[in-house]
């Protein structure tokens, strides 16, 4: 059984790791993050560094597409950010579901979309003029076990919402 909750994400500064036009953008963007974090000595000191990931741009698996990770900087201390793309994440209200197992990702995404669509109090809150497949996705993933086996993979999936 999956539980969906409503949560507010606070604004924060993030470092961007973006790969466009790739058959494996998630892996390549994560590799960019990992190389950066290791070069800054962050991994031994900070066991869990929140990573917000999203399609940018979206595309079907097996075709070239893009993916972007945002590394939350607020709790990392004094880190050299020279040469990095730093952005401000505005935060906001989100519906969130925890998905365990890579084979449960698509069913979990369908479940949360149906939950928001049918909810009497909440509706999706996409940016004005948002076009799926062209614009960066306003839905986010926060993965907790990037290097684990497929059946041990866990992520939280966030959909932006607003009160109706």
Oligomer: single chain
Radius of gyration: 16 Å
Instruction: Return the CATH class.
Output: Alpha Beta
State the helicity in percent bands. 10-25%
**Would you identify the CATH architecture?**
Alpha-Beta Barrel
Mean pLDDT: 89
Order of helices and strands: EEHHEEEEHEEE
The structural domain count equals 1
Corresponding CATH superfamily: Regulatory factor, effector binding domain
Structural class: alpha+beta
Fraction of residues in β-strands = 35-45%
Task: Quote the CATH topology.
Answer: Multidrug-efflux Transporter 1 Regulator Bmrr, Chain A
- The number of distinct helices, counting runs of at least 4 residues, comes to 3
Summarize the entry for a quick read:
The chain has 164 residues and is an alpha+beta fold.
